[in-house]
Design goal:
Layout (H helix, E strand, L loop, with lengths): L16 E7 L5 E8 L8 H17 L6 E3 H8 L2 H7 L9
Parallel strand pairs: 2-3
Antiparallel strand pairs: 1-2
Length: 96
Amino acid sequence: MYNEDNRIKKRIDSLLLKSLEFKNYLGHKVMITDIPVLLPDDPNYFMVHIRLKVFTEQVFKKNESIVIYSFKQYLATVLKWPVYRKLFAEDLINNA
């Protein structure tokens, strides 16, 4: 991204995350957090969109009383590690 004078180049690498809130079929309020925001031209956009749809349907049908679900944790269980690492690269900092 450039400023108005096109002199200073700024790099934007931060990953935006959304959350989704709805009521399940029993009427309980449920929240899905850590949903990555991707542009439609991103190669992983379609895959994340479909996974979110499947995950939302699963959460909607559950009888459990869990209020908050993490989409990021769900993706960690269903995606291959290289794909997951591409999506959440800045969160994977080595603490050693």
